[in-house]
Amino acid sequence: MNPNLSRRRFIKAVIASGAAAATHAGMPSALAAGAADDATKGGVERLMSLNINGKIRRVDVLPQETLAYTLRYKLGLTGTKIGCNRGECGACTVLVDDIPNYSCSTLTHSVRSRGVLTVEGLQAPDGTLHPVQQAFIDELAPQCGFCTPGQAMAAVGLLKDNPNPTREQARQALSGNLCRCGAYDNYLNGVMRAAGGKA
Amino acid sequence: MASYDVMPDVQLYQPAEMDDALELADRFGRDGWILGGGQDTYGWLKDRAKHPKAMIDLNGIEALRGVRKSDDGIEIGAVTTLREIIRNETVNAEYELLALAAGRVASPQIRNVGTLGGNLSQDARCWYYRRGLACYRAGGNICYADSPQGMNREHAVFGASRCVAVSPSDTAIAMVALDATMVVQSVDGERLVPAERFFVGPATHITKMTSMRPGEILTAVRIPSTWAGARFYFEKVADRDVWDFALVSIAAAMQVDNGTIGDSRIVCGGVACTPHRLRDAEKALAGKSLSDETAEFVAPLASRGAKPLNYNHFKLPLLENLLRRAVRG
Ligand SMILES: Cc1cc2nc3c(=O)[nH]c(=O)nc-3n(C[C@H](O)[C@H](O)[C@H](O)COP(=O)(O)OP(=O)(O)OC[C@H]3O[C@@H](n4cnc5c(N)ncnc54)[C@H](O)[C@@H]3O)c2cc1C
Ligand code: SF4
Ligand code: FES
Ligand code: FES
Q1: How far is C-alpha B315 from the chain's CA centre?
Q2: B235 and B325 in contact (C-beta within 8 Å)?
Q3: Could you tell me the pLDDT band of residue A197, with boundaries at 50, 70 and 90?
């Protein structure tokens, strides 16, 4: 990782998260958390480090904030979509330690010491698309494209766990992602193509 | 209904020790909200239909995680995810009924983070109640579902008392069928509650689904070896295969010797406010063979005593058919 880049990102994150973070940044952590008594019992500190797409981002997070909210509105990672905001569509799917999660239904504070992968983190540094992204294009999977980031993350999560899924296993793995355009078969073809099998 | 993008202002505690969690649960009492995977939590909060002051997240407590072998069976920590249960070797080898049930919950992403404790403790899915209406279950004095114009297709056919909501948990029926025991802790100590008494109906507590009191935490579930390796049958009928609650479901555990049924537990979901045991069928099955004849013989017992509402008569043949399928061999 380029240290200058990560430093710039750190500053950007602090600025993006507003003045509250900027003032808290220089404070002892117990003060920033509010009551010191709460901190000892498991009360959370708002200023936290997140590992997003392999980079450490510092950000001021409200106790009740969802990961989708932090990603989109504080870190500018708007590739993660919010469809229903209640665990019923899959558009917000990201990987947490390689496991697909609905980021709209995950508290940011619960991923503190874990690795988050979003659709922005899929492509190689030189811009080459991830095999799943390329396969989705080749299979004409995205129609309106709104569900695509979520479909991609569910597919990448599957292939990390099981690099050679059957079509039925792929269907199961993508069953938590709605596609309002109905391009389900195209997405499935994409997963099978990315897995190296025949679509 | 007002629906909000953002969560309301609520405190969050992430204790690493059980003692701290119990103290927090005690301190906040009714204003505290125990947090497993949060999948039956954030909807309530985003809709501003429930108003806890603090969430007490159990995920940092290592002792509450995982499947352990015990002297007599297994013990599953309350924050073990459904994903872990579905993939666990011992569960699959000996108590497959639970893996089958957990595998039918919601969607993959929800199973990835949803916990056993949360699945068993989840609240009713009656849509009137979920909308935040002041019905009996919410402390009011009317049931919107059981009214002349109420939509009650998903509601109860057994055991209603003012409230006609059903038990939504897929794993609950498996736990009752497996004779599980719930381990419940508070600052005052521990109590063991048999699964059948853990779930309570509206005649007992109209605003609660379980016998847990404010300040208590479900820490583990113990499954005795009684039904290890028994013959199991699980089936859930819902409108959609994903993200949907059971219209009717069945979890059956049967001791079968040479094709002959001995002791059995037949428990149904989606038909009563608690997991509903088909005791008459269990009795009638003893000594019978797994066969189509047995299926025909016991099926009518499944719906005996049912009191359907305006829109849920369809649950009766569904219930009978699920029992048929469980025992036809
Ligand atoms: C779209 C959608 C579809 C769903 N479909 C299904 C389905 O088909 N079948 C099904 O069974 N469920 C379903 N659910 C409900 C729910 O998401 C799952 O049951 C999930 O397993 C709940 O677990 P959780 O850990 O996320 O619960 P949480 O939200 O963390 O907790 C649920 C409740 O239990 C309490 N609680 C949690 N853990 C404990 C504990 N250890 N001690 C005491 N109280 C505790 C919480 O305070 C809360 O009231 C669905 C939910 C959604 C949003
Ligand atoms: S069935 Fe129960 S939860 Fe639903 S409206 Fe009636 S009282 Fe409320
Ligand atoms: S936005 Fe998270 S599941 Fe729909
Ligand atoms: S491509 Fe439009 S929702 Fe899936």
Answers
A1: 18
A2: yes
A3: low
Q: Which listed ligand is nearest to B140 at the C-alpha?
A: 2
Q: Cα–Cα–Cα angle for B303, B318, B226, nearest 5°?
A: 70
Distance CA A195, CA A129 (A): 15
**Residue B36: which CATH number?**
3.30.43.10
> Which range of residues forms the domain containing residue B215?
62-121+166-328
Same domain for B41 and B53? yes
Is residue A199 assigned to a domain?
Answer: no
Q: Which ligand is nearest to the CA of B207?
A: 2
Nearest chain A Cα distance for residue B259, angstroms: 32
Residue A13 has pLDDT above 50, yes or no: no
Assess whether A31 and A117 both reside in one domain. Answer: no
Question: Sorting pLDDT into bands at 50, 70 and 90, what band is A38?
Answer: low
* A155 shares a domain with A143: yes
pLDDT for B293 equals: 97
Average pLDDT for residues B226-251, to the nearest whole number? 97
Q: How far is the CA of B115 from the centre of ligand 1 (A)?
A: 7
Quote the domain boundaries for residue A5: 1-43
pLDDT digits (tens, 9 = 90+) for A88-104: 999 999 999 999 999 99
Q: And the tokens for B101?
A: 């049930």
Same domain as B106, residue B39: no
Predicted confidence at residue A14, as pLDDT, reads: 39
For residues B315 and B270, the answer to whether their CB atoms sit within 8 Å is yes
From B53, B121, B237, B274, the mutation candidate for ligand 1 (largest count of ligand atoms within 8 A of CB) is B121
Q: Which of B11, B113, B61, B54 is nearest to A46 (CA)?
A: B11
How many angstroms away from the CA of B69 is the closest CA of chain A?
26
pLDDT at A42 over 90: no
> For chain B, what is the domain count?
2
**Looking at the structure, do residues A53 and A146 belong to the same domain, yes or no?**
yes
